[in-house]
Design brief:
Oligomer: homodimer
Largest interface: A-B, 37 and 37 residues
CATH class of chain A: Alpha Beta
Helix content of chain A: 25-40%
Distance between the termini of chain A: 18 Å
Radius of gyration of chain A: 20 Å
Order of helices and strands of chain A: HEHEEHHE
């Protein structure tokens, strides 16, 4: 049995034998912040490149644990929303670290320097256990 | 210097010395598939739990490289969409592996067993370089 599996097994056995939902330590959370940017000039490759340049600077906020900058994929099923220009996905350890990001000077400077490019943003913040 | 940093350094030095944007090998892609589920009975904790149970089975599709199941976070700025019930985020190496997932028996069984629970899904598929 691998160490990690063993720990999981021990934890769940303990939980089961004590009959308490509370006996196992709380699973670590992951805070997922996903932003979809819609450009004022959706056909401008220059504006899109400029926004991506800005996001690459924004990625330096120290509480960001993982980041991915994307564009709509080639998939086209009817349930797929693909009219945004740029996807900005980042992970934080928790809500508090996301709040630090929101007010971090790098973030404020990003908004100041690049917000003229976008028409709107749609943001989804989700939390759930790390797996 | 760590091995990875050294490789990056060697790659970028090579690129710089040859003066060619093409000299570095293409960065690896990451395919990000993010689904937001809206329940028929948004206030039913039982339905939400059942959907999460289904997603935990769906997570076993072998081409999934990373998965996170989430619920709307406590953040409430006006740009934040939080009327969905469950967020399903997964990473694939590329479009082909996402297509394998779409038609995998585990995925088809998930849709068969759980789709009665949701009113709609909104899907965002994004691709961009792995960092």
């Amino acid at each position: 049995m691998k160490d990690q599996s063993r720990r999981k097994f021990v934890k769940s056995s303990l939980g089961a034998s004590l009959g308490l939902g509370l006996s196992a330590p709380a699973a670590k959370e992951l805070f997922v912040h996903h932003v979809y940017f819609y450009l004022k000039n959706p056909d401008s490759a220059a504006d899109k490149a400029k926004l991506i340049e800005g996001l690459n600077k924004l990625a330096k906020v120290p509480t960001i644990k993982f980041v991915h900058i994307g564009e709509p994929a080639a998939t086209t099923r009817s349930v797929i929303e693909r009219s945004y220009a740029v996807s900005w996905l980042c992970f934080f350890n928790n809500l508090m670290e996301e709040e630090i990001y929101q007010t971090h000077p790098i973030h404020l400077k990003f908004v100041e320097d690049y917000s003229a490019l976008w028409e709107k943003v749609v943001v989804y913040d989700s939390t759930g256990p790390k797996r």
